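Annotated sample (chain length 292).
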Amino acid sequence: MKTEITIKIEGNKSREFENEWNKRYPRPDKNAIYYGVFSYFVGSLIHHEFEDFMKEYTSKYPASVNFIRINEEKIYSEADLKKYEILQCGHANHVVLSLKDFNHAYEVITECPICNRSICKQKNDLVLNLQKAKKDFLTVNYEHINPDVSVAFVVSKKLRELLQNICPSNVLFRNIYDKKENSYSCEFFQLIILNTYPPCVPPTEISFSTCCTHCKMPSAIYLGNAYTPNSIELFISRPASPLPAIGLSYEQFGKQEYLNDAAKVIIISQELYQVIRKNKIKCLDAIPAHLT
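Output written by the structure step:
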């Protein structure tokens, strides 16, 4: 496992600091500072070189530059991931759902007067432009909310067949109308996940959680640095029934100021993950999740 740290460099001499460092690593070198943002792997040679440079510079110009950690990402090898019973699905390519097409596919059942979240129900098949859909798994992002939040999931024909064979009771599928081809797609389908895992428990990094007293919609709100679903490891109570091959988190995750944009996380079993890899599915990243 490797840990990548991203920092933001601010202060009245931040530009000078960036220019001095970039004399060593001019753009487009991956070790350059870009617009005040710099990333490194913990324990790497660049990490040690940057720390030495930082100490040297701040000793010359005290209190002139601030270093703010804005993201921390753990990167796991396949050997690391094999140690876990369940995994949390990470980043994936996405297609965008326009306002017009969202209104075609979904209807608002009610808007909660307490937390202001809309409770929607799908009424029609998705209408999407699948021209650039090249992967086996895609998220559908609604253009009017946080682009890291998914309103639906799309799978290839290959992945649909695999899921139907491995976990038919965990999933359903809907057809998708391809705007580019002006017909229903034979290659991509909407994935509907039926199972939900139990709630998260400590030490999941949830700074604030809530369940609306009116609409009963639970949310886990991660506060602090920039957050996207799948950027923290989840600890989940072990279900009493057998583990589903694929399920959704109980909570929706997001930032407190974007409560309406919170999203659930996909969780898959180790068995399903290995089948996905064996079949060379062009899918999505995975990070560990934990059963307690």
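Annotation: Residues 223-230 have pLDDT under 50 and may be disordered.
Annotation: The first strand starts at residue 2 and ends at 10.
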